[in-house]
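Working notes for the structural subgroup meeting. M.R. asked for a predicted model of this chain before we commit to crystallization trials. I am recording the input and output together here so anyone reviewing the notebook later can reproduce the run.

Input as submitted:
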Amino acid sequence: MRAVVIAEFGGPENLIVKNIPDPEPRPNHIIIKIKAFGLNRAELYFRSGLWGDVPRVTGIECVGVVHSDPEGNFNKGETVMALMGGMGRTINGSYAEMVCVPLSNVVAVNTNLPWEELAAIPESYATAWACLTRNLELSSGQTVLIRGATSALGQAAANIASIHGANVIGTTRDKARFETLRALGAEPMLDIPNLSEQIRSRHKNGIDAVVDIVGNSTVVDSLAMVRPCGRVCLAGFLGGGAPVDAFDPLTQMPSGVQFSFFASAFTFGTTEFPLSAIPFQSFVDRAADGKYRAKPAHVFDLSNIVEAHRMMESNTANGKLVVTV
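Returned structure, recorded in token form:
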């Protein structure tokens, strides 16, 4: 099969398309014939070697059809999504024509969506839904700020929160992207230093919740904008992974605010968080009927993976990047 292989750790130019052996059947695993896959920032870290020695075929999610299932849980040819389960981290991932994935990390869906549109959904929407409904326990009528809202995860969160009946504020560093946020049902704001001061000038008592996708460089400021008993969920590291500088909960964390982190790589498909708990079919149906603006921002062919990674690394995508196989 054709696969994208990390020739050596480093820049996008080290991603090489070559032929490698097809995956072999394993107990409690499913072999998927991949039709398309979404790109995720984790794969930048895998490719660069910053997260240690990982498999040379990266990729943490895909959509396609079942090629083989030794356990008989899925029918051959059935449309499925797969995410996490060690893909790209401990086993070969989804940047290929086929992949062998743990049964626990595969879910079937019924849809007529084009493959490239279906591929924009699994990881982004599952993570956004988990952050909003589990970590933040967001309710209709509450106000949530999504920091990094024009990212793929941010747009998914804005879609879900808006349909859920929340008042959504979405931040971006580029005023030209305000229309993207308005179309998602979010009030746009520029993400500036000390944004909490601007939020507090509009919401004296603080807002209910924050999904912080920018990460360690903004999380202290995000904590400062939330009301007592409000919640902040750290969900990404768009601003880089450097440690929070001298974080002191005594002086920098408002009393009563709940702070959590969501790590999909170590969560989805576990006994504590089975994929059956996530409404994937609802995501797909709402994307199909236009309730979710879930189409990919850019679509690439497998042979253009270097260009796709360069765009992802430059933070210019304005949404989900998808590769068709």
